[in-house]
Amino acid sequence: QVQLVESGGGLVQAGGSLRLSCAASLPSSFRFYAMGWFRQAPGKEREFVAAVSRSGTSTGYADSVRGRFAVSRDNGKASVYLQINSLKPEDTAVYYCAAAWGYSDRQYRTNRDEYNYWGQGTQVTVSS
Questions:
Q1: Model confidence over 49-98: pLDDT tens digits?
Q2: What is the CA radius of gyration of the chain?
Q3: Residue 40: which residues within 8 A CB-CB, separation 6 or more?
Q4: Strands 122-127, 10-13: parallel, antiparallel or unpaired by DSSP?
Q5: For FRET with 86, which of 9, 61, 68, 79 sits at 20 to 30 Å CA-CA?
Q6: pLDDT tens across 31-49, in order?
């Protein structure tokens, strides 16, 4: 089992940027997990944001964030990142990273049920 810890959240003005990080506890196994980012706003379901394949060569994004957010990973550091730019108030949510085992090197996943492990989340608040 891998443990995930997110960091980098905070309060930022609309139009600003943040860089979220997710560190995994087992560096030797990290490269075997496809990774994803999800978010959950108050009163709403947890929704897909971005995902990256095991090698980092394939990425996918929700329509609401495409062109503004960028996901990347560093397998040597056992970390995945989410660069978030041009933030809007509607981006306010708790952001979670997640790990999925058992997929090919070039695949990414967008469904919550496909992920096996989750971090505790980090709060992102965007003020207008």
A1: 999 999 999 999 999 999 999 999 999 999 999 999 999 999 999 999 99
A2: 14
A3: 46, 47, 93, 94, 96, 121
A4: parallel
A5: 79
A6: 999 999 999 999 999 999 9
